[in-house]
Design goal:
The protein is an alpha+beta fold. It has one domain: 3-Layer(aba) Sandwich (Aminopeptidase), CATH 3.40.630.30. The chain contains eight helices and eight strands. An eight-stranded mixed beta sheet has the order 1-2-3-4-5-6-8-7, sandwiched between helices. Strand 3 and strand 4 form a beta hairpin. Helix 1 crosses helix 3. This is N-acetyltransferase domain-containing protein. GO terms for molecular function: N-acetyltransferase activity.
């Protein structure tokens, strides 16, 4: 699929180095929740390196285990939609893909906390019970190079993911969108918010909001059913 100066395609193993570079520069420490947790913890350079190493491992696992999508420009890969495919716990192996991409003992309080909140949001969305589907695809991370934003790339990456899921008879796609910009891209691609979560609900042991000062405190769980596309 081509859109303007960009081509949207599925990933290949050779894309890994460029995708890692893209995520390091435009997602790991830019995604609103993780960014604020890092700032709150006042991470050191060593801790930043550990977070990068763990996040790189997650991206490798995703690319090896899922069909993902990239936006390619003459300069290389400038956007990515990294996906996860999970199964209903009551069907088959009940694979929880989100749990599978994080180490059980991450040696990083920030990653451990970040994973905890993502899992809680997924649990609260309760999508398998809500939609009674056997499997679903999550758009885990949609990232676009800073120099190529506001050109509709995120929307096209999401749209390609929805179309692919439809063609594979995956009945439901969803994403946890933590910025107004990514949420709008998902809306334009036909996704609908079914759950809004106020991050200020999460409190520390003193009762203070964990995400105090986050630029956008509302997280949107957005979905698209594919059966009628």
């Amino acid at each position: 699929m081509e859109t303007g100066d960009y081509t949207i395609r599925t990933t290949s193993p050779s894309d890994l180095p460029q995708v890692l570079d893209l995520m390091r520069e435009n997602f790991y420490f830019e995604e609103n929740m993780c960014k604020l947790l890092c700032e709150r913890s006042k991470i050191t350079d060593d801790e930043r390196g550990i977070i990068t190493e763990i996040s790189d491992g997650s991206v490798r696992a995703i690319l090896q285990g899922s069909t993902c999508f990239v936006a390619v420009h003459s300069s290389g890969i400038v956007g990515a939609n990294l996906t996860l495919l999970s199964e209903n716990p009551g069907c088959g192996e009940g694979k929880d893909a989100l749990a599978g991409i994080f180490p059980s003992n991450p040696h990083s309080p920030v990653i451990e906390e970040y994973h905890k909140y993502l899992m809680d949001i997924n649990d609260r969305a309760n999508l398998f019970n809500r939609y009674q589907v056997k499997n679903l695809m999550e758009f885990y991370a949609v990232a676009v190079d800073k120099n190529h934003r506001r050109k509709g790339i995120a929307q096209e990456l999401i749209s390609r993911g929805i179309s692919w899921a439809r063609d594979q008879a995956i009945p439901l796609v969803f994403g946890v969108f933590t910025s107004p910009f990514s949420m709008k891209s998902a809306q334009r691609a036909g996704m609908t918010s079914i759950l809004d979560i106020d991050l200020l609900e999460y409190k520390d042991h003193l009762g203070e909001p964990i995400f105090q000062g986050i630029p956008a405190n509302i997280v949107n769980v957005m979905v698209r059913e594919t059966k009628n596309l």
